[in-house]
Amino acid sequence: MIHLHINLVESVMNKECLSGEQIAVVIPCYKVLTHIESVIAGFGTEVWRIYVVDDKCPEGSGDYVKKACVDPRVVVLYNEVNLGVGGAVMAGYKRAIADGASIIVKVDGDGQMDPSLVSVFAAPILRGEADYTKGNRFFDLEELRAMPGLRVFGNAVLSFMTKFSSGYWDLFDPTNGYTAIHADVARHLPFNKISNRYFFETDIL
């Protein structure tokens, strides 16, 4: 597994080497109606398919995307009940695997993750350097300074707990939600044992 630092020059180079790969994006949707359209619009041509998972969203995110979005790569999935972000992502994983994706990238629908960086997360997997990649919010000092102190403290505590439980002490930001996984690895995940809520990423580790 690789914990990624964001490099924009590398991002451009990676997009070129991803040509022809089946890169899928999974977006869990719950109360993100005001952001979801711009998130989808931000994905480049390296993305093969975009799975929008409506997790019984009270705003009707799935129906909105179906009506407003004309991107042919978009597939809208619906959970019959609200499962939580973990359950929504796993639903997207399963569909992406069934459709033949090679790499699955998870991006939140609230606009806080840059969709143009998909290639940064996917490239190390395609090069055989990792099976799973995660972002690192603490690499950018300016962004870190902009975060409220309480949030930084909370992230630090959760990160320590995750490192302790997973054994991945070299991860700077293990709770980061911007991730990519090789489909061959994802298909062997114990889906029935992974949390449906926010700790699902710790379960994957």
From TrEMBL:
<dbReference type="InterPro" id="IPR001173">
    <property type="entry name" value="Glyco_trans_2-like"/>
</dbReference>
<feature type="domain" description="Glycosyltransferase 2-like">
    <location>
        <begin position="25"/>
        <end position="187"/>
    </location>
</feature>
<protein>
    <recommendedName>
        <fullName>Glycosyltransferase 2-like domain-containing protein</fullName>
    </recommendedName>
</protein>
<dbReference type="InterPro" id="IPR029044">
    <property type="entry name" value="Nucleotide-diphossugar_trans"/>
</dbReference>
<dbReference type="Pfam" id="PF00535">
    <property type="entry name" value="Glycos_transf_2"/>
</dbReference>
<dbReference type="InterPro" id="IPR050256">
    <property type="entry name" value="Glycosyltransferase_2"/>
</dbReference>
